[in-house]
Structure formats: C-alpha cells, structure tokens
Specification:
Length: 505
C-alpha cells in the first residue's frame, strides 16, 4: 500500500510496548500507564507533543488490561463489547492477546515469555492494526517491534526505528511464524545470523536478530542521543554486537541515522510538583530548596541541616552501566574529606549495588551522612528539589533523563563524559556564567572524585553568585529540554522520510 508523501497531514502510527500516559482527547481510557523504563516517558512525551501540534498521530500498544485499571472480572460481556467498540473509534489501537491481559509489568523476567509477548504484539500490529489505521509512516521502538519495519518496507510504508537500548532477541522464522506472523512475504528484509541461501534453507536453522532486523529494514533510524550514535558507529562500546554496530554504521554513512535527545517527564516541574514540601521556580529556588532539603532529611534520617551540601543518586544501582563501583570506591574518602562541611549523599534507587552501599554506611556509621532508600516516585522528586547535585557516573548512557530533570529542579549534574550525558551537560564556567554541571572524562574513581571536588568548590561560592548561576541553568533547561523540541526533531525526520521516493517491492 504505497503512500502519498504529498499528503498535507500524514498519519503517523507510533508503535511502542510501553507508555506513561496519553494526552486528553486522544482516547477513551484514563489511567493508561505501562512503564518499565525511559521508553515509556519518551513515547508519552512524543505522542503528547505531536497530538498537541495537530499531527494525525495514532498509537499501537499491547492491551495491558490490569495495568490500564480495567477490571475485566467485573465487566459483563455487553459492557466489554461497548468498551471495545469505543476504543475502536479512537486513536489508541490496543493489541489483543491474553498474554498481556493480566500482567503487572511490561516485561517478563523470562526471555521466552518476553519473546511470546513481542510476537503477539507484532502479530496484531502487522495483521490488524496497520491495515486498520492505514498509516503514511510507522514509528517503531526497540526490539519488541523489530519485525515491523521489514513488513512495512514490503507494504511500501516508510518506517522510522528508534533504538533506545542495545538489547535484542534471536529466533528462527518457524518460531516467528508459529506465533501467527506470516514472515514469508518479507523474510528478505530481515537480518539473519548468517546470510540466508533461501527461505526454506533458513526457516528452521538461521536465527533472526530482532533489533538488527529493525535497524536493517527501517528507512531511517535514530538513537536517543547524537553522541551515543557516534560512539556506537565508531565501535567505542564493546557490549554492542558487531552486527548491530555495522548496520547502524551503514545507516549513518547513508545519511539515514541521527540522534534525538529525549525530554524529561512533563510532570517534573518544581512549580507544579505535588510531591514537594514547597514549590518553586528559577526566581524562588534558594529558600524553597532549603525547605525541601529539611523535609527530605527528616524523612530519610539524614542530619537536618539546610546548609549541608547534598548529592543525590537518582538512577538504578546497576554496576554494569551506572558506575556504582566508582562511588563505592571513594564514598568513605569523600564523606571524610568534607565531614566538617556536612556533605551528605542520598540514594533513592533499587538495584544490585544497594546492599553494597548499605554495608558501607553501616560499617562506618554514616547513617546521618548517607541514606540508602528504595525507589519511590514521591521521595525521588523531593530529592531532586532538595539536592544541590546529582550523580550520574555512567560507563555509557544512550540518553539519560535524570541529568536533565535535575536541572529543572536547580540540582547540578555530576556526570561521566559519555553519550547523552555529553550532549546535555557542559562544564560549568563560573567566570563566564556558562555551562550547567561537572563532567569527568576518565572513567575511574579518581575522575568522579575530581568532579565532586569541583562541585564542592562551586558550593563554597557566595550565595548570590550561586543563585544567579542556578537560576540560569533552570531557565535554560526548560527551553532546551522539553517535549515540543523533541517532537519537532521527530517531525523533521518524518517530513524528510515522506519526501523520499520508496523503492518498489
């Protein structure tokens, strides 16, 4: 079904396995929330911004009935029928399969279960939702949608594929077809583990890589940060499989790949945030942040001191990516070095390294200086408002949101110079009043300690000088990191794709 690229308001179908919310007026379900990570926030922000700007945007996502607050057990069949008919006329298109209905989480801990979910989702999108919506362009996200670009290419529909995380799954054609997807018409657009001789030869013995297939078959791809894209293309990350690196590099060389930064959650606004003790903006942040700091300290057992410099760790405690070991190596030294200045560190995060930090706190009796808390949305928001700095010493970062969110709340980021952190944090120059945080280049504990020392040097400045800089950072962040800016970047890609002639298949 080739599409008319000259259409005044082309129809965009966004295909995503997770989303945080949908804008008012877009569909009939309230309380739609299916989140496992940043993809949910990105999907919500993009769809919301596109909808506000008048785009003919539609969304395809799995029907997580339990997570969407629909108690099917209490619905009689007639009510359910009316309910489903109402959805049919909206811009929300839910993939129906029992595997989604009673789930409490987006992804399973079992890879085979995640594969079945991905196949059920893509089966419904390919077989039912695309024919129903008749989109002019399809926008897919991550490996759970990796087969759709191949089908879209066969249908003559341009497809954008966004790579949020380097995660994939491999399965054979017969396993894919056994889940209800007829891959025979588009098998040549898929990426196999080895070059296929023909369909029959590869059907049972040559696995398909879902993420590589999405990249290979899409007409255009993007990552969620320009620097991360270049890092992958240049082979700077050993965890990126070589086949995926090659495919991304090929798209990049052909001018069909770019990086678009994500944006923070629209709810993360300190002048509207219901979780804060006192709301504030760029002109009132000084006094308000001190009140929020006292509230946070009181709730978490830290020593109550409105003048104590507070560092906040907002990301999951994942030692592979997030740089937890760098901080654990220097935690004692940093707290001891700045003991007289009352330095405090707060973790509001779950993950494997949580117990490591709790043991360090217990061994050194740092309970009033370091707090380790399970993740809680309200407590995390309060920590952004209470803190002076956030810590993100990630080994790699496809984009990252906390380093942008923190700037909204007047908390300056301390980060490793990589990926999306490089794109969103510039070294602070006090004399010129430029920059917005502290970056270290060498990925080691000494680099992180140096950056924290720089942050403490900034904290020692006169209050009026600090206030002026933090106010500027807050104002610039709202202008630079927002959903409309992100949506405009995607719209530019859509327009470019729709203007290109497609090859016949």
């Amino acid at each position: 079904m080739p599409k008319n690229s000259k259409k005044k308001n082309p129809r965009i179908l966004v295909v995503t396995p997770e989303i945080t919310y949908l804008p008012n007026g877009m569909g009939s379900l309230s309380g739609m929330r299916a989140k496992a990570g940043g993809l949910a926030d990105v999907s919500a922000s993009l769809v919301g911004a596109l909808f506000r700007q008048g785009a003919d945007v539609h969304v395809a996502l799995p029907h997580y009935r339990r997570m969407f607050h629909v108690d099917v057990g209490k619905l009689i069949s007639e009510e359910l029928r009316v309910y489903m008919n109402h959805l049919h006329n909206s811009r929300i298109h839910l993939a129906e399969d029992r595997i989604f209905y009673y789930r409490d989480t987006v992804y399973s801990n079992y890879s085979a279960d995640s594969f079945r979910q991905a196949m059920a989702f893509q089966r419904e999108v390919i077989n039912n939702i695309i024919p129903q919506v008749e989109p002019d362009l399809i926008h897919c996200n991550d490996w759970m949608t990796g087969l759709i670009p191949a089908a879209a290419r066969r249908m003559g529909i341009p497809c954008l594929f966004t790579v949020h995380n380097i995660h994939t799954y491999k399965s054979t054609l017969d396993e894919i077809e056994d889940r209800g997807i007829d891959a025979a018409p588009f098998w040549q657009n898929l990426f196999f583990e080895r070059p296929p001789y023909n369909y029959e030869e590869s059907r049972s013995t040559n696995p398909v890589d879902t993420l590589a297939s999405g990249i290979f078959a899409a007409h255009f791809i993007n990552t969620v940060s320009p620097t991360f894209l270049r890092e992958v293309v240049d082979g700077r990350h050993s965890f990126v499989p070589d086949n995926i690196r090659r495919e991304m590099a090929g798209k990049y060389a052909a001018g069909c790949a770019t990086g678009i930064l994500n944006s923070p959650d629209e709810d993360c606004q300190p002048d509207k945030d219901p979780y804060l003790e006192v709301k504030f903006d760029a002109s009132t942040h000084v006094a308000a942040k001190k009140v929020n700091k006292i509230a946070f300290q009181s709730r978490t057992g830290l020593k109550v001191d409105q003048d104590a410099p507070l560092f906040f760790w907002p990301s999951r405690l994942d030692p592979v990516q997030k740089g937890c070991s760098l901080l654990s190596d220097i935690l004692y030294n940093v707290v001891h070095k700045y003991w007289d200045r009352g330095l405090q560190i707060a973790f509001v995060a779950n993950g494997p390294y949580q117990d490591v930090f709790r043991r360090i706190v217990g061994f050194h009796d740092f309970y009033e200086r370091v707090t380790v808390c399970d993740f809680d949305e309200g407590l995390s928001r309060l920590a952004f408002a209470a803190s002076d700095f956030i810590l993100m010493p990630s080994l790699f970062e496809p984009c990252g949101l906390p380093q942008m969110t923190s700037q909204y709340y007047g908390s300056l980021p301390v980060v490793h110079d990589t990926g999306g952190l490089h794109d969103t944090v510039e070294p602070l120059d006090v004399n010129r009043n430029t920059g917005n945080g502290f970056r270290f280049e060498n990925y080691d504990a000494h680099g992180l300690e140096w950056a924290m020392d720089e942050a403490m040097r900034f904290y020692a400045l006169p209050e009026t000088q600090k206030s002026e800089i933090v106010s500027r950072v807050m104002l610039e962040a709202k202008t630079r990191f927002n959903h409309d800016v992100t949506a405009q970047a995607y719209i530019k890609i859509y327009e470019s794709m729709l203007a290109r002639p497609l090859l016949e298949h």
